Amino acid sequence: MTTSTEPHDSAADHAAGPLASPGLAPMTSPRACRHVARRVAGQRGAAHAAASEPRTAEVPEGRALDTGAFDIEPRAGALDARAICGENGPRYRRNDPPRSAHVCDPGELIAALPALVGFAPQRSLVVAVLRAGVTHGERPVIEALARFDLTPETRRRARVSMFTACIAQICAVEQAAEVLVIVVDDRLSGPSVVDADADADADALVASLDKRLGRRGIEVGGGWAVRGIEAGARWWSLFDREQRGEVPDPTASPVTLAHVLEGRPIRRSRAELTALVEADTVRQGEVAVLLPAALAMARDRFTRAVTHGDLDGYRRNALEFVLWQIAHVESGAVPTVPEIAELVAALRDRAVRDTMFALAVGDHAAAAESLWLTLVRALSGPDRAEVAALLGYSAYIRGDGPFAGIALDAALLADPFHPMAILLETSLRAGMRPEALRRLARSGYDTAACLGIELGPAVR
């Protein structure tokens, strides 16, 4: 078992600028009202709708943005936004085979949201960005989703400004000019009664959002609201409260079924995702006791390697130790506290750490992510930030935007100036496709090859 403690070279990392912020609720727009009535009536997709098949719009699945609408294929994703622009969900590569799931009406779309987002959104605004270039007679396709909290501690005008900037940024990335909105908020009164507080505030927020997006050439093509996502819940149009219906059982949604068959867990709430990266203070204390000795041993090995001109050999041994631990996790084992301390020392070597990005696209991606989850709970400070950034990258690449955002939040809480975490979070909030970040994985493969280690083929 060999580790490395070569000083971290932050200048070699990529830095990114600060992020934006957001917040939201429902609306009434005559222009959008006419548009959504046409869409719900199915006029836009009639030419392609089979008599035995419900008429739907299309929602891409497989990305990590919060979406809302009609056909779901692999490249879409979900973005979770709270005080910042959101957790962008990455898409799958363009050469992946199409796997569309159809939903028939707004109720089915709402029922599909927990599967698309990865958890059941609460007090949230979900924005679905429609794919550009859809011609008349074709069903609209949802290209990306974004989720925003409805309870930010900012004033309405500031919230709308942040929402607008974020949505416009995503639309620019997608070259899209139309969005749909879904409001999930238990404080709303429902389709029959308009509460003076919650409903009026929501209507004002969405009307402002509609107006500001319109100035940027982005149309709000439709919108719906629901108090909660559960079987039998009443949904209604944000433009015409006479348009309403019931949400079918979310667990029976074809989108949910597809995600379950792919082994993608659906959490009951965002809190369940956040709990996965919560610090284990007891384990942190145990690791902290053993870490100085592990680092001292690594420094000694590093010094001997440099003295004998065998730095690559030292790094190769350190990398092999980390890869052995990942294989160990894959067999069902859990790293011991001494092993965690040695892993920390190994990952403090920049070459070893950077190689880890390659694992996100390889055969052992799930095992590597399991190890990062174990480490992120057991570590603190910059070491926690390093592992959380690896965890966030892995989730980003596999299409889980909400969890990627949670992991990157944890990284930046541990180290607010962590360059890689800032870069990844900025990319996520802007809706950047994961394939644009695959160069990190390719760089990891190159580093491993220089050390004489074959990591296997990329499968993602």
TrEMBL record:
Region annotation Disordered: where it falls in the sequence: 1-29, 44-64
Residue spans of biased composition, Low complexity class: 15-26
Organism: Nocardia aurea
Ranges of Basic and acidic residues composition bias in the record: 1-12, 55-64
This protein's name: DUF4192 domain-containing protein
InterPro entries, per the entry: DUF4192
